[in-house]
Amino acid sequence: MRAALDRIPGRKIVIIDACYSGNLLTARGGTKSAATPEAFNASFISAFSTRTRRGLAADSYFVLTAAAANEQSYEAEVNGQVMGLFTASLLEGCGYSFASSLAATLPADSNANRVLTLAELYRYTARNLLSDGQHVQVYPENCGWFGLLRD
């Protein structure tokens, strides 16, 4: 995955709704045999680790993960469809209405300038998921200049 992303020029936004996804920003891979699921996970995590400058937390990547390194990412039924709570909050923050299947306003746009930034989307999803025991992770922190959506 990392090799494929590196072939894309410019900066990339990576959004991961998975259990323990915070590992993709902080962990170091293990040394188990590549034949085991644990070894695959360790090598995947290692490829994106901040402990190497070539990791996902590098200058050309902007990252949101659903959970901290030691947390599960939960799912629930949202308007008749099972999905990750992180994904549901992310879509809602970007203005998607589950009732009408249309985009409306940008609820995550905290300064009401009609431009949604990664930092605003992070704060919105983090606030929504805290009561569910998920701690959304972001890289880089306080990335306010990067406009994701315009209303």
Task: Give a quick rundown of the structure.
The chain contains five helices and nine strands, in the order αβααβββαβββαββ. With 151 residues, it is of the alpha+beta class. It has one domain.
Question: What can you tell me about this protein's structure?
Answer:
The structure is a single chain. By secondary structure, this protein is α+β, with helices and mostly antiparallel strands. It has one domain (2-150). It is 27% helix and 21% strand. The protein has 5 helices and 9 strands. The protein has helices at residues 2-6, 23-26, 37-47, 85-93, 118-129, and strands at residues 12-16, 61-65, 75-78, 81-84, 96-97, 102-103, 115-117, 137-139, 147-150. The strands form 4 sheets. It has a 3-stranded mixed sheet with strand order 1-2-8, with helices on one face. Strands 3-4 form a two-stranded antiparallel sheet. Strand 5 and strand 6 (102-103) form a beta hairpin. Helix 4 (85-93) crosses helix 5. The longest helix is centred in the last third of the chain and has 12 residues, at 118-129. The two termini are 31 Å apart. The relative contact order is 0.18. The model is unreliable at 27-35 (pLDDT under 50).
